[in-house]
Amino acid sequence: MKTLLSYSFSSLATHMHSWLKNVIANDLLLTITELVIIGVCLLVFLILLAFFLGYMERKVAAFMELRLGPNRVGPKGTLQIVADTVKLLFKEGFTPDAADKFLFNLAPGIIITTALLAVAPIAYAKGFQLWDINIGVLYISSVSSMAVIGILMAGWSSSNKYSLIGAMRCGAQIVSYELSIGLSLISIVVLTGSLSLNDIVESQANGWWIFKGHIPVLISFVIFVVASTAEINRAPFDLVEADQELTGGFNTEYAGMKFAMFLMAEYINLFVVSAVAATIFLGGWMPFHIGGLTGFNHIMDYIPSSIWFFGKTLFIIFIIMQFRWTFPRLRIDQLLNLEWKYLLPISMVNVLLVTLMAIMGWHF
Amino acid sequence: MSASSVIFYIIAAVIIGGGILAITSRKIFRAAVYLLFSLLGIAALYFYLNYEFIAAVQIVVYVGGIVVLIIFSIFLTHASGDEMKRPVLWRAVFSGLATVFAAALTYLFITDHNFVPVGYALDHPVAPSVKNIGLQMLSTTEHGYILPFEVVSMLLLAALIGCIVIAIKIKTKE
Predict the structure, then answer these.
(1) Distance (Å) from the C-alpha of residue B7 to the closest C-alpha of chain A?
(2) A136-188 pLDDT per residue, tens
(3) How many A-B residue pairs are in contact by the CB < 8 A criterion?
(4) More confident residue, B34 or B119
(5) DSSP of B142-169
(6) Which DSSP letter does residue B61 get?
(7) Residue B121 gets which letter from DSSP?
(8) Would the CA dihedral through A79, A278, A330, A66 be positive or negative?
(9) CB contact under 8 A, A142 and B130
(10) Which of A306, B17, B22, B102 could serve as B34's disulfide partner, Cβ 3.0–4.6 Å?
């Protein structure tokens, strides 16, 4: 039983590596093969995830509005998203006449690339991480700050005034909410003393930070969830798209697979911010442990680490999806006021509190 | 050629190609996008050298900050989608000359510098980890950077206050 508990995916990876090494002699070829395998696995996972999140979003929306949601295609409507994807595949990839064609076609690529880059350092289970970079948190927040350029590019190159207004709003929104996200992440970095996602998960072996860190960490968790909902342009902060006023905002002119790429990037971003919140505040793949209670901790260890990770991530995704049907959309001035007059001062004071707590050792 | 040098040449091609396209493109928004690729290439070069912290900071500051600001200011200009006029000849000549001299200066620095060959130990090797960078940044000892750090923070504070003063709305009495 001991071996089962300490099992991690790293042994699987080592086996794969040694097997491939026997088959392929050339080092360069071996590296490329492994990269291709990892890339294909990741893409298939993310596409399935986007399907699942699309289905989940509709079901959650239906639940909140007392509807049934999709229930015709496949059992319980599970194949609805597949049908939608096929529809998008067959649509014409339309480019407006007055658009800057090069940038118009480049923008979806940039947006999906930034979304995929941010996925790299996430730890899915014990010993199962694509890239254990020692600045994981900083890397994710820096890469996700690039998404704004794709949206600005899409909005400007469409040569449509609604798209342009949507893009301008997006720029103001993302640049300002990044600050709160950074400050709320810093509070946990201060407590852990490391930027690596793996170290942060390991530091929660005797309890998750949201329980260990008292009220200041709870505040930064709430700020992180609010600010990242704004960062990924989801309702109630979706005035980048704002169907009623901007008829879709920056992606008005996009159709077919280019639009599908925006949609997929949105779901990947949703997954990334929820996974980061789960990793930083809720312990990532670390089971629910209470420092000192060895028997209880042992029972919790029987649940596999990947289930813990995905359970926490889906829980946060569920919360963010509920926001959409709970709050009305903000106006642009309300949006900027919320960030600059409330969230930013609160998170600045909060960082000071957390630093004091870390120095005095008041956390568990 | 090893895989490592292939990657290096690809990165170098992106940096130089992006730079050349950024100054030769006559559509100003496209020029900003090419500049973005050049700056991303530099971040990739830092990753290639294992300077992960510097690479992430390069992305945050240049890609997430400066290029976004450039794009915003392009949005605010009139007719940002039209092709710009060809530059006047004498300006092109002088900027060409400036480039040549800058290249010569850089070449001089590179040839003068004594690079340590691969495999030789440095005198005081310091891992470029976040911790070491942070300690060095706030260190008051001989090679510490506390004074430049504080000076730069004063400068940034002054810039912030300046922005607020420019943007502030003074209520007029009615």
Answers:
(1) 11
(2) 888 888 888 888 888 888 888 887 888 888 888 888 888 888 888 989 998 88
(3) 73
(4) B34
(5) TT--HHHHHHHHHHHHHHHHHHHHHHPP
(6) I
(7) P
(8) positive
(9) no
(10) B22
- Across the interface, whether the CB atoms of B56 and A134 are under 8 A apart is answered no
Q: Which residues of A141-161 are buried (b: 16+ CB within 10 A; e: fewer)?
A: bbbbbbbbbbbbbbbbbbbbe
The tokens 């960030």 sit on which residue? A339
Pick the residue from chain A with its C-alpha nearest to B81.
A100
Confidence at residue B97, expressed as pLDDT on a 0 to 100 scale: 93
Compute the Cα dihedral for A169, A175, A178, A183 and give only its sign: negative
The ranges of chain B annotated as CATH 1.20.120.1200 are 3-125
Q: Considering only CB atoms, which chain B residues are within 8 Å of A28?
A: 2-3
Task: Assess contact for A94 and A105: CB atoms under 8 A.
Answer: no
**Rounded distance between C-alpha atoms, residue A238 and residue A332, angstroms:** 10
Cα gap A257→A93, rounded to integer Å: 7
Q: 3.30.56.10, 1.20.120.1200, 1.10.1740.10, 1.10.10.10: which CATH number matches B3-125?
A: 1.20.120.1200
For residue A283, the model assigns a pLDDT of: 82
3-state per-residue secondary structure call for chain A: CHHHHCCCHHHHHHHHHHHHHHHCCCHHHHHHHHHHHHHHHHHHHHHHHHHHHHHHHHHHHHHHCCCCCCCCCCHHHCCHHHHHHHHHHHCCCCCCCCCCHHHHHHHHHHHHHHHHHCCCCCEEECCEECCCCCCHHHHHHHHHCCHHHHHHHHHHHCCCHHHHHHHHHHHHHHHHHHHHHHHHHHHHHHHHCCCCHHHHHHCCCCCCHHHHCHHHHHHHHHHHHHHHHHHCCCCCCCCCCCHHHHCCHHHCCCCHHHHHHHHHHHHHHHHHHHHHHHHHHCCCCCCCCCCCCHHHHHHHHCCCHHHHHHHHHHHHHHHHHHHHCCCCCCCHHHHHHHHHHHHHHHHHHHHHHHHHHHHHCCCC
The pTM of the full predicted model, rounded to 2 decimals, is 0.86
Pairwise CB contact (< 8 Å): B71 & A171: yes
Residues on chain B touching A153 (C-beta within 8 angstroms): 33, 71
- Contacting residues for A338 by C-beta, under 8 A, at least 6 apart: A330
Task: Kindly list the residues from chain A whose CB atom is less than 8 angstroms away from the CB atom of residue B75.
Answer: 152, 156, 164, 167-168
